[in-house]
């Protein structure tokens, strides 16, 4: 997808105004209006209604925000976008309101404006405008949803993000696995690999423009990098070694991965554009699944150097390696949350594989899922949810999301069975 | 010699499956027939027979070669030394309960341990490569298979 997003009208952004609410914040979504008139006005109102419904669908996914069902009877006139009738929404039970407008441009593109209000206080919380291609209205909706979500919760919105995973179809020898990428609402689903080779563990660049993954195409598992815009792909390091477990740095400039040297698996870092890998660990045994802290100064990884798989933290240059997991059982596949507060992991124990979180200093450990076939956690951009893979008793796997507060994981709809999910940061 | 029997049965099973056409099944059970092996297939069968199998087994979560595994590799090495023209790949498998990337590394380590032992017993290093299937191929669990190319 082309980068069709130009933020304009960037006026006041009223910051994170609400403290976190214990219950979901009810939000009204009066349909987006248009300053245009005539046929064009009708066209823009139709797009505005599509955007309105997409915003509702976005916000309904969240635990923190509860949208009122939008009604086409609630259209505002264009001037009312900046002066909503707060008393009406107060009596409807809404605490917040998001609305806006869609305006056609002479070049065929659209200007979409979004406004978020505190209904109780009757004041604006945030506004943002975008110029988009006419077919990209769904992304404008995701941006509006994110604006509202951030204004209410203080956390980044997860709507304008991508999810990569391994799509699995067929049975037995005919089982086919392909890298798939979709928007986080399930739209724009596409396959990145053809299915002729076994593939594993896609990892998206922070803004979702590239995906690194493991392919068995060359006879040995090795990391490849695909550009989602150009479709070009290349090996991460020259052929001849087993490489796996790729993960981008938060700024997208580097890729961490594991490589076998003889019987030893160690962690390396390489520029995302290619170049010579730098070795970061040297211990005998399996060091793998590295993940950067959001400021890029530290790396969490797993190692079985002490006999069982445990979590270790080290500096980004490989110094000061220190074990942080001591809860019993085996700890694997750590992922550092975007806000830096938590590390998600897979714990193997008597009760199977479960997803949990632990603070970077090794305190505060809690398990979020009941297992027994869960693995591969990946954080949402909000740092409030974790996407993971759950394998059922019949061996079929699917993608699930669970909130940091726990609760029952919800399955994410995918066209086929899914494994190895990865959730990108917010796109540009 | 049970392992040999299993492996030959697998080879035969594969051939039979390839030869079976839709509809044949309805006319009654297929006649068992002994395929004539040629080229690489003949070499594979000979290797499996002479070496007493193509697999070595590791304990759960272990990458250490036990005595039975070393004995099996010694037979494989003897055959490989007699067939220097044959190139082999040792394919390691992880454990199904493991996490994906650790299983990949464990499979690679198991393959490398077996390869190192073959080389120690005089098989030229260039004759043996390694790879790992991690936990991606079900059934074999903790076995390392040596395939002839």
Oligomer: heterodimer
Give the N-to-C terminal Cα separation of chain A: 11 Å
Strand order in the largest sheet of chain A:
1-6-5-4-2-3
Mean pLDDT score of chain B: 76
Distance between the termini of chain B: 23 Å
Report the CATH architecture of chain B: 2-Layer Sandwich
Give the strand order, joined by hyphens, for the main sheet of chain B: 1-4-2-3
Q: Give the biggest beta sheet of chain A.
A: 6 strands, mixed
Low-confidence stretches of chain A: 1-21
What structural class do the secondary elements of chain A suggest? mainly beta
The CATH homologous superfamily of chain B is named OmpA-like domain
Low-pLDDT residue intervals, each spanning 5 or more residues of chain B: 1-27
Question: What's a concise summary of this model?
Answer:
Helix content of chain A is 11%, strand content 42%.
Spell out the blueprint of helices and strands:
The complex is a heterodimer of chains A (about 425) and B (about 150).
Chain A: E1 6-8, E2 25-28, H1 38-60, E3 65-67, H2 86-91, E4 96-104, E5 110-118, E6 123-132, H3 137-153, E7 162-169, E8 176-183, E9 190-191, E10 199-204, E11 210-215, E12 222-227, E13 233-235, E14 243-248, E15 254-261, E16 264-271, E17 278-279, E18 287-292, E19 298-303, E20 310-315, E21 322-323, E22 330-336, E23 343-349, E24 352-358, E25 366-367, E26 374-379, E27 385-391, E28 397-403, E29 406-412, E30 417-423
Helix pairs in contact in A: 1-3
Chain B: H1 2-19, H2 39-50, E1 55-57, H3 67-82, E2 88-93, H4 100-120, E3 128-134, E4 143-148
Parallel strand pairs in B: 2-3
Antiparallel strand pairs in B: 1-4, 2-4
Helix pairs in contact in B: 3-4
């Amino acid at each position: 997808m082309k980068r069709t997003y130009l933020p304009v009208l960037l006026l006041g952004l009223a910051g994170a105004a609400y403290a976190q609410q214990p219950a979901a914040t009810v939000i009204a979504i009066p349909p987006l209006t248009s300053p245009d008139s005539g046929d064009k006005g009708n066209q823009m109102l139709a797009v505005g209604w599509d955007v309105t419904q997409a915003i509702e669908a976005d916000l309904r996914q969240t635990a923190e925000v509860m949208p009122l069902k939008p009604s086409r009877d609630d259209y505002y006139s264009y001037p009312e976008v900046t002066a909503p009738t707060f008393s009406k929404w107060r009596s409807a039970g809404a605490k917040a309101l998001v609305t806006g407008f869609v305006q056609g441009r002479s070049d065929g593109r659209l200007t979409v404006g979004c406004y978020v209000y505190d209904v109780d206080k009757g004041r604006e919380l945030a506004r943002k405008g975008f110029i988009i291609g006419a077919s990209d209205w769904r992304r404008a909706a995701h941006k509006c949803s994110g604006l509202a979500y951030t204004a209410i919760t203080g956390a980044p919105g997860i709507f304008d993000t991508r999810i990569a995973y391994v799509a699995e179809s067929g049975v037995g020898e005919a089982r086919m696995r392909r890298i798939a990428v979709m928007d986080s609402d399930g739209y724009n689903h596409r396959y990145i690999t053809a299915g002729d080779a076994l593939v594993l563990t896609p990892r998206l660049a922070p803004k979702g423009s590239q995906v690194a993954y493991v392919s068995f195409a060359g006879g040995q598992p090795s990391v490849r990098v695909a550009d989602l815009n150009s479709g070009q792909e290349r090996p991460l390091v020259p052929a001849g070694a087993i490489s796996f477990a790729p993960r981008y740095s938060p700024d997208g400039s580097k890729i961490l991965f594991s490589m076998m040297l003889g019987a030893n698996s160690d962690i390396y870092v390489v520029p995302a554009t290619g170049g010579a890998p730098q070795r970061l660990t040297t211990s005998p045994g399996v060091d793998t699944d590295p993940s950067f802290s959001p400021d890029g100064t530290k790396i969490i990884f797993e190692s079985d150097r002490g006999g069982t798989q445990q979590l270790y933290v080290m500096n980004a240059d490989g110094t000061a390696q220190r074990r942080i997991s001591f809860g019993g059982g085996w700890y694997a596949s750590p992922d550092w949350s975007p806000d830096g507060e938590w590390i998600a992991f897979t714990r193997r124990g008597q009760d199977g594989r479960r997803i949990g979180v632990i603070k970077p200093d090794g305190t505060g450990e809690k398990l979020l899922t009941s297992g027994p076939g869960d693995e591969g956690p990946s954080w949402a951009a909000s740092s409030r949810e974790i996407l993971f893979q759950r394998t059922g008793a019949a061996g079929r796997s699917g993608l699930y999301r669970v909130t940091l507060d726990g609760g029952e994981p919800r399955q994410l709809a995918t066209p086929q069975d899914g494994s190895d999910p990865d959730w990108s940061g917010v796109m540009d | 010699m049970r392992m040999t029997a299993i492996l030959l049965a697998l080879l035969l099973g594969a051939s039979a499956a390839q030869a079976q056409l839709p509809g044949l099944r309805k006319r009654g059970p297929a006649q068992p027939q002994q395929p004539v092996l040629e080229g690489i297939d003949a070499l594979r069968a000979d290797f499996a027979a002479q070496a007493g199998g193509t697999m070595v087994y590791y304990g759960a979560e272990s990458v250490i070669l036990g005595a039975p595994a070393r004995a099996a590799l010694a037979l494989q090495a003897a055959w490989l030394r007699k067939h220097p023209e044959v190139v082999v790949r040792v394919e390691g498998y992880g454990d199904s309960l493991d996490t994906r990337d650790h299983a990949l590394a464990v499979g690679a380590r198991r393959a490398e341990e077996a390869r190192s032992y073959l080389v120690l017993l005089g098989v030229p290093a260039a004759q043996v490569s390694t790879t790992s299937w991690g936990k991606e191929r079900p059934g074999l669990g903790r076995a390392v298979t040596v395939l002839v190319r």
